[in-house]
Amino acid sequence: MIGFDPTEEQALIVETVRGFVENELRPRSRECDEARGLSKEVLAQAHELGLVANGLPEAHGGGGERSAVTSCLIAEELAWGDLALAIGVLSPSLLGIPVTDFGSEAQQAEILPSLCGNAFEPGSLAIVEPRLDQDALAPATRAQRDGDGYRLDGEKCLVPWLEGSGPVLVSAADDEGAQLFLVGRSADGLQATPEDNLGLAGLPTVELALDGVRVPASARLGDAGGTSLSALLARSRVAMAAAGVGMARASFELARDYAKEREAFGVPIATKQAIAFMLADMAIEIDAARLLTWEAASLLDRGEVATREARLAFDKAKRTVLQAADGAVQVLGGHGYIRDYLPEMHLRNAGGFASFEAMSLL
């Protein structure tokens, strides 16, 4: 029997996160977008909820309650409030999840306690490269043996870069294929150039240039087996698909509520066939994207390979996000185009959503 109702614990988590988003996160969304930076206060408050730390190992201070489906529910609610803040809140997962899944005991002991500590500590993952033929599973960034360590050369872009002291995980290809390397933010040869993006204005991102960055052999994630980037990509795609559902839901609800209140020729515009059909299509596509995301997440929770399902969920979310954001601008008309209302910001965020697949993990 297939069930779609959350467990009592999941329902409580969703209720808690939704209250936080309504009271603290969403009211700051426009402020963060205009200031081109995230609220440290909101990040600290979110950290107290343990949204990432709860899924990290108990041995290193986490809760040990990892669930991809639960993480999807959390990501949807956070992104319903604001995508930039959602990615910022969940950024510790960019470091914590790969180290948990593939890191050695020494790497876990070094990295994870800080992510589960009393203060918010972000993570950063550099996978996307600034080239048209970029392939996350075959990075152009190279890792060559150099004595007892590695030399890294290449470029990355769309790298979340919140203020913190932890290392950034950089994908690079060595003789055994694509791997991840822990690189200190102040490493010689590493240059971070702030990006000025159309959307996600509140989230600091950088383009990284690695010119002869030298790291010790212990910086390579994992032991002899290295890292499975395909498994991490599946988790990132599912996480971002869930965030996309939240974004699309926010746009749909804004459009629906406006259409119910705005009158033309004496009746709400929601009664007009063109508007009603547009809203109905948005609702259908959002539910479809959510179900694909939950399917992929449930496979991950069962320890199964979800490469195909994750790809389908992310691709569906990309289209749905843009459709819903564009639809909201159309429904609001002139109000949807000006900065006093949220749809214009949603549309800017939706425009780049297809490139954001390595910005969250679950």
Fold and architecture overview:
By secondary structure, this protein is α+β, with helices and mostly antiparallel strands. It has three domains: 8-115, Acyl-CoA dehydrogenase/oxidase, N-terminal domain (Butyryl-Coa Dehydrogenase, subunit A, domain 1, Orthogonal Bundle); 125-219, Butyryl-CoA Dehydrogenase, subunit A, domain 2; 229-355, Butyryl-CoA Dehydrogenase, subunit A, domain 3, CATH 1.20.140. It has helices spanning 8-25, 29-35, 40-49, 68-81, 83-90, 92-102, 105-115, 229-261, 273-301, 307-332, 343-351; strands at 125-126, 142-146, 149-160, 168-174, 177-183, 190-194, 205-216, 263-264, 267-268. The strands form three sheets. The protein has a four-stranded antiparallel beta sheet with strand order 2-3-7-6, with no helix packed on it. Strands 1-4-5 form a three-stranded mixed beta sheet, with no helix packed on it. Strands 8-9 form a two-stranded antiparallel ribbon. A hairpin with a 2-residue loop joins β4 (168-174) and β5 (177-183). α4 packs across α5 (83-90). The mean pLDDT is 94.
Task: Give the structural class.
Answer: alpha+beta
The general outline is: globular
Unreliable stretches: none
Question: At CATH's second level, what is the architecture of the largest domain?
Answer: Up-down Bundle
Radius of gyration: 21 Å
Q: Enumerate the strands of the largest sheet in spatial order, edge to edge or round the barrel.
A: 2-3-7-6
Helix content: 40-55%
* Gap between N and C termini: 26 Å
Question: How many beta-strand segments?
Answer: 9
